[in-house]
Design brief:
Layout (H helix, E strand, L loop, with lengths): L30 E7 L7 E6 L10 E2 L8 E3 L4 E3 L2 E3 L9 E4 L7 E10 L7 E6 L5 E5 L2 E3 L7 E2 L18 H6 L3 E8 L13 E4 L26 E2 L2 E5 L5 H15 L7 E2 L5 E3 L1 H4 L4 E9 L4 E3 L1 E2 L33 E5 L10 E6 L6 E4 L2 E7 L3 E5 L13 E3 L2 E5 L2 E6 L5 E7 L5 E6 L7 E7 L7 E5 L5 E5 L2 E8 L6 E7 L2 E6 L8 E3 L9 E7 L6 E9 L6 E6 L16 E6 L12 E4 L1 E4 L4 E7 L9 E8 L3 E7 L3 E2 L2 E2 L3 E9 L4 E10 L7 E7 L3 E7 L2 E9 L5 E5 L4 E5 L8 E7 L7 E4 L2
Length: 758
């Protein structure tokens, strides 16, 4: 199954026969069970299927009817690190799968399991080999038939799926680490003829029953607590042989990377390369998480969060889904402190991985001894990519016809005058994946946004946003007659192409009705992103347009500011929080070397502070260390444009440009005289206020001035409603006021400078 950049989908069972058979780069998997959507509806039903590529599809069946694929509604499915996981304790139990090519007399079974009950032993799965032997793997021990003493495989160190008083770690720590990669070696003496033996059977999702022929017993139920395992399983690998230590490490690394599980060992990629060295990571081997891509192993994990979230938001609990509101078309949930990944729609190079882990530090902040306005989080993270990230600053993001494009960093402002048609298109998408995202203005003409197939002049697949804010789907260049959404004006809109499907999200939420599926015969075509509009009396003005998929745009990160102690970072989520990166990898955050990534507007509904276009390891050193901080003051730059001279006479055409780095609008400024011909000291030259990050003061004479910039408070008021009903919400938190003062010298012709007098 192909895993798309934000969503996962399955277009048909015929695709199973085309998949690789090397999860984690380990060849010869006999059964590769994964939870997969029944249809293209990611909020619909999910099933447990074998993706090993066998000509006969293997799946979990019910012991009563024995004829159907086990399926489960999304309401019972859990998304574990943005991948679906089934709860086998629900519905008819147990389920069983007959393996066609594996007798399971000898074998290796590796799976991911996330319990949501921690003190009750349960049967995770049963193994019945072709020669009549059997065993049970419970959440605490391995049980063999007859009077053989069970093996407690996690008796003291808490490495099993059950918390007991014998564990050496506290209960809360166990719950945090409850999701595990569980490996079971089965090494019975082979007893087969030259013709081979019958296949084995896996039984999952229920207690042992002596009358169930799919268990090879009998098992002494006095040796274990014979209950069904209550938890989730997203993936299970079955090999009809004992894997070598290197193969086991590769398979376990693959599952750990995919599901955000921290191993007690180092990690290998599908080619056997060391991609995270536990010893080298040292104190940073906590909550190890990764994103990665390996086409040969059908593995793409472009966005990740640890499955070891701290209490009370334990990741294995049903309520802590990876997606906000458990909507697989939406954005990450508020239950994750830190989510990172490739910019959505930005393709990930093959055999690329990016790992990070933290030092276990506290989430509280400390004050820098050199600058008491800086509040820096104690916890730091180590990032280790296997290739540096360098943005292509020479690439053109849009080609405009009739429209105007104004670049602003990684964003663009796109405008169209009234009564004129126009369009903008991106370069060709490099991997058939792309994204266009923007805040939809309150007033606008009808316009199309989506993707254009090579040779087409308009939007081939995407969405038409009407002047009234309604949305219609566009397929093969034609807009449908039925609206799929209403009143998106004023909302944040994103349109993404991934794995042959175009997805719409409005204020971060999507759904099956918000999708356009590209026909199979058109999926291999070359596409470009496109925004187009017909002539209208209403102009089009799109600000902060983000486009990914054609050039390198880096990575993103989300910090859940509501999960910081006392919601400390929540109060500074607008304009004040930064990601501090030490490119040396030493975690010193020296002001001479530290890179600051300023936050974007926060997502208040999810409690997230957003960071975009992060370029990890831009210096090629192999690692970065980062943390988060906020500045409890105002930080700004000033550039002075000198006056010119005409026939030796200075002109009154000097200017001062104010650039806000960190601060809270509204910003107020005043410019007074220090020494200007014909003016008195302290005369007021200019004053006012501005909301944006920049402001320009013009028409200045030669001389020196004092510029003072003051930030406003944090009392943001938002109104919503109509003529008859209006509501207002606000925060009563006020930021510390502050001002910055400069002596601005030499506005006369020559060198201009600005000196900070903080």
């Amino acid at each position: 199954m192909k895993k798309v950049l934000l969503f996962s989908g399955l277009c048909g069972l015929s695709a199973l026969l085309l998949l690789a058979r090397s999860p984690g780069g380990v060849e010869g998997v006999d059964a590769w069970f994964k939870a997969a959507p029944v249809s293209g509806n990611l909020q619909g039903r999910y099933q447990w299927l074998d993706f090993s590529g066998d000509s006969v599809v293997q799946y979990a069946q019910n012991r009563v009817s024995g004829t159907y694929v086990f399926t489960q509604d999304r309401a019972l499915v859990k998304s574990l690190n943005f991948n679906p996981a089934l709860d086998f304790s629900k519905g008819d139990t147990p389920k069983w799968s007959e393996l066609h090519r594996s007798s399971l007399i000898q074998g290796t079974i590796i799976g991911v399991f996330a319990p949501y009950t921690f003190k009750t032993e349960g049967v995770v799965y049963g193994v019945a080999s072709g020669d009549g032997g059997g065993s049970l793997v419970t959440s605490d021990r391995i049980v063999r038939p007859g009077n053989i003493e069970p093996l407690d495989y996690g008796e003291t160190h808490g490495e099993d799926l059950l918390y007991t008083g014998k564990d050496s770690i506290p209960e809360n720590t166990f719950k945090e680490h409850a999701t595990k990669v569980l490996t079971y070696y089965r090494a019975a003496n082979p007893n087969t003829s030259v013709w081979g033996g019958p296949g084995g059977t896996l039984t999952i999702g229920g207690a042992y029953s002596p009358t169930d022929e799919h268990f090879n017993g009998p098992f002494d139920t006095s040796n274990f607590d014979n209950k069904g395992f209550e938890g989730y399983s997203p993936e299970l690998l079955v090999y009809n042989r004992i894997l070598t230590p290197g193969e086991r490490r590769k398979a376990e690394s693959y599952l750990a990377m995919k599901y955000g599980v921290t191993l007690n060992d180092s990690y290998l990629d599908g080619d056997g390369n060391l991609v995270w060295d536990r010893d080298d990571a040292g104190v940073y081997h906590n909550r190890v998480t990764a994103i990665s891509r390996n086409k040969a192993g059908d593995f793409l994990q472009p966005m990740s969060a640890t499955s070891y979230e701290e209490g009370p938001l334990y990741t294995s609990l049903p309520e802590n889904d990876s997606y906000h509101k458990s909507n697989s078309y939406g954005l990450p949930s508020e239950a994750h402190l830190l989510v990172m990944g490739r910019e959505h729609g930005n393709p990930m190079p093959d055999k690329m991985s990016l790992f990070w882990g933290d030092d276990g530090g506290a989430l509280e902040t400390y004050t820098s001894p050199n600058d008491t306005l800086w509040h820096i989080m104690n916890r730091t993270w180590l990032v280790k990519p296997n290739m540096p990230t360098v943005a292509d600053t020479t690439a053109t993001r849009w080609t405009a016809t009739g429209m105007t494009v104004t670049p602003e960093g990684f964003l663009d402002v796109i405008s169209l005058e009234e009564n004129t048609p126009g369009s903008v298109v991106t370069p060709e998408l490099t991997d058939g994946t792309g994204l266009i995202e923007f805040p939809c203005p309150s007033t606008h003409p009808a316009f199309d946004v989506g993707f254009s197939k090579s040779g087409d002049s308009g939007c081939t697949y995407g969405f038409r946003i009407g002047s009234d804010g309604s949305v219609r789907a566009i397929a093969n260049g034609e807009a449908g007659g039925t609206g799929i959404a209403a009143d998106v004006s004023g909302a944040d809109v994103s349109v993404m192409l991934s794995d042959g499907v175009v997805y719409l999200r409005v204020d971060g939420e999507g759904g099956a009705a918000y999708t356009v599926t590209i026909p199979e015969d058109a999926r291999n075509s070359v596409y470009r992103g496109v925004i187009s509009a017909e002539a209208s009396a209403t102009p089009l003005y799109l600000t902060s347009v983000r486009s990914n998929g054609a050039v390198e745009t880096g990575y993103f990160a989300e910090l859940a500011h509501n999960l910081t102690p006392d919601k400390e970072f929540y109060h500074y989520s607008r304009n004040r929080t930064v990601m501090l990166i030490d490119p040396t990898g030493e975690g010193q955050f020296d002001t001479d070397n530290t890179v600051m990534v300023r936050c974007s507007p926060p997502d208040i509904s999810r409690g997230k502070t957003m960071f975009h276009n992060i370029l990890w390891d831009a210096d090629g050193s192999g690692s970065d260390v980062f943390t988060f901080a906020y500045f409890d003051g105002i930080d700004a730059d000033v550039d002075v444009e000198p006056t010119t001279c005409v026939d030796g006479v200075p002109q009154k055409d000097g200017a001062i440009d104010i650039g806000i780095n960190i601060g809270t609008p509204i910003y107020r400024y005043s410019l007074t005289v220090d020494s200007v011909a014909g003016m008195k000291k302290d005369d007021l030259v200019a004053s006012g206020s501005f909301m944006g990050k920049t402001h320009r003061i013009e028409n200045l004479a030669t001389g020196t001035y004092t510029l003072t910039v003051t930030q406003g408070g944090g009392n943001d008021i938002h109104g919503k409603g109509n003529l008859l009903y209006t509501t207002y919400s606000h925060t009563d938190r006020r930021f510390t006021g502050g001002d910055v003062e400069w002596t601005v010298t030499e506005t006369g012709s020559g060198t201009a400078s600005a000196r900070s007098l903080l």
